[in-house]
Amino acid sequence: MLDYSALRAVSAVVQTGSFEKAAGLLNVTPSAVSQRVKQLEERLGMVLIARGSPCTATEKGEWLCRHMENVGMLEAELFGHLPGLVDPAEPEPRVTLHIATNADSLGTWFLAPVSNFARRSGYLLNIAIDEDHTADWLQRGRVIAAVTSLEKPVQGCRRMALGPLRYYATASPDFIARHFPEGVTAEAIGNAPALTFNQKDRLQSRWVRRVFGEDLTPPTHWLPSTQGFVEASLSGMGWGMNPAPLVREHLNSGRLLELIPETPLDVPLYWQINRLAADRLIDLTREITAAATACFNAS
Amino acid sequence: MLDYSALRAVSAVVQTGSFEKAAGLLNVTPSAVSQRVKQLEERLGMVLIARGSPCTATEKGEWLCRHMENVGMLEAELFGHLPGLVDPAEPEPRVTLHIATNADSLGTWFLAPVSNFARRSGYLLNIAIDEDHTADWLQRGRVIAAVTSLEKPVQGCRRMALGPLRYYATASPDFIARHFPEGVTAEAIGNAPALTFNQKDRLQSRWVRRVFGEDLTPPTHWLPSTQGFVEASLSGMGWGMNPAPLVREHLNSGRLLELIPETPLDVPLYWQINRLAADRLIDLTREITAAATACFNAS
Question: What InterPro entries would the database entry show (chains A, B) (predicted)?
């Protein structure tokens, strides 16, 4: 059988960042916490906690913490049916759900529904921004659900289509006057600074390919921030693909212009949620799908 | 002597994400690009480019790309003095400056001055968000300058104080009514969900320690987004330390309240810039310090 007091010690150290605070949380002495963690590490032959300020989980320790959270979610359900199991001397267990989202959803519609859910349910949420590892994270239990552009159903998950997030290729009027005096030609696009979120961001290239029918390589600034993209576009630093919900007003007022009118790019998004958790988190799924629909229909 | 045509091939592949596009950028055949990269990798006995879609730099490849950008900056200066050196057949070289910033500066005052600088200078900028590796990145040339809370002067850098970014412990009125009906006591703080940016974010703990004189461990949501913090505070999901420039209006209008009136936390920020580059980037430093001063004095 797993030694749950040791597992609980590891997750408390990671949660609080120190052995002393973990001891306070668990109502035991720091040396008891230290001993439990050490014995488990020796038995497994691997380091679970990177000692430091703060103490953090190693990769192996991370998996163990995720396991404890999934168990916590099951326990919370069990306590609902059998309240007598709750030990009144123990602090009320708070369960943290790990959820991934792409950055542009977090910057537009994602936070309102998860906030509603958190307030009503009492769950704590750990929001991770990710575009690359979502399938892996879902499969290995690193996150329990994700908003993702990943169309392929992840093994062990339910997948729901949320609809497309619409992007516009936008820049400020002075940027367009400066860099595209003769219109948005292939040559001009090849010389006008674009904005790119990070190495994985192909939105600008996809738009260029669709419009010009060929791969061009615009010079680019790199800016890993959804809000920063809008600000940089407004200030005339570069052009970039901005999510419709963040630029609709700027487009209406003329502070931003589409490089070429009516040439949006739609990115379909999905909600992928672990099958084992899906039934228990049906409220979360409902909030997420309703908010996405409302946001995407408005664009 | 370094084989600069091979180095240029590596950086072009990383910049464009593929051997084909790099070939287009350099006006040579894809097989020439591939050969140059391969020969250099064989000579060094290490992989410089992780082949994929897109192709990215390995850690060793990253250093090589940084070197090429620093050389590019020196060349740009040289061409100013000796324009005859510019080969009219070659595409105009665009130099990318790598700059790090803490997330909250990027979310408040940082983008306006770097945008001004980018527009006037023609430099491309690669903005990296970082709180942990700044000293290392500056020392090893991974970035050329950084906005950081790191007070200690980094070897090889000039350091300028930018002033303190002010934070307020804030929550929505309904959150405060719900979680602090008898005031913000130590016990209530231990049960009310806080917001934490990531494992390195000690601002909430520092504020709690200062106010209550002891370490408490509030339950917490994890949310790695500056704008997300403000939204989550407004929606009553949790309380968190928010930068004054983002919450001033919300505090004035009463949409957010300080947990305890007039208990801000000030975080001094610094501009650290590589000494070799400092003279050439004096305009950037001027923009940065002026914008920081204006923003911090307004809080």
Answer: ArgP, LTTR, LysR_HTH_N, LysR_subst-bd, WH-like_DNA-bd_sf, WH_DNA-bd_sf
Band of pLDDT at residue B107, cut at 50, 70 and 90: very high
How many Cα atoms occupy the beta-carbon half-sphere of B149 within 13 Å?
A: 18
- Statement: residue B79 has pLDDT above 70: yes
Identify the weakest region by mean pLDDT among A5-19, A59-73, A133-147, B217-231.
A59-73
Which member of A15, A124, A237 has the closest CB to residue B221?
A: A124
B-facing residues of A in 188-207 (CB < 8 A) are 193, 199-200, 202
pLDDT tier, A90 (very low <50, low <70, confident <90, very high otherwise):
low
Closest residue on chain B to A202 (Cα): B54
Q: Which residues contact A297 (CB under 8 A, 6 or more apart)?
A: A163
Q: How far apart are CA A235 and CA A255, in angstroms?
A: 10
- Is residue B238 domain-shared with residue B293, that is, in the same domain? no
Of A45, A66, A87, the domain-final residue: A66
- Of the candidates A56, A221, A235, the beta carbon closest to that of B112 is on A235
Q: Are strands B257-258 and B157-171 parallel, antiparallel or unpaired?
A: antiparallel
B244 shares a domain with B153: no
**What's the structural domain count of chain B?**
3
Q: Do B263 and B139 share a structural domain?
A: no
Task: Look at residue A172 and tell me if it is in a domain.
Answer: yes
Shared domain check, B137 and B175: no
Report the pLDDT value the prediction gives residue B207, as an integer from 0 to 100.
97
Nearest CA in chain B to A122: B193
Minimum mean pLDDT range among A65-69, A237-241, A250-254, B273-277: A65-69
pLDDT in tens, B121-168: 989 999 999 988 899 889 877 889 999 999 999 999 999 999 999 999
pLDDT the model gives residue B103 = 96
B84 within a domain of the structure (yes/no): no
Q: Which chain A residue shows the shortest CA-CA distance from B190?
A: A25
Q: Answer with the residue of higher pLDDT: B21 or A2.
A: B21
What whole-number distance in Å separates Cα of residue A248 and Cα of residue A254?
10
Those of residues 213-272 in A touching chain B at CB distance below 8 A are 215, 217, 219-228, 231-232, 235-238
Examine the domain organization and report whether B142 and B175 are in the same domain: no
- The pLDDT, as a whole number, for residue B236 is 97
Q: Among the three residues A41, A66, A91, which one is the final residue of a domain in this structure?
A: A66
Give a yes or no: residue B85 inside a domain: no
Q: How far is residue B87's CA from residue B183's CA, in Å, rounded to a whole number?
A: 71
Cβ–Cβ contact A76 with B under 8 A: no
Residues in chain B with CB shorter than 8 Å from the CB of A239 are none
Our separate counts of H helices and E strands in chain A read 14, 11
How far, in Å, CA of A66 to CA of B235, rounded?
A: 27
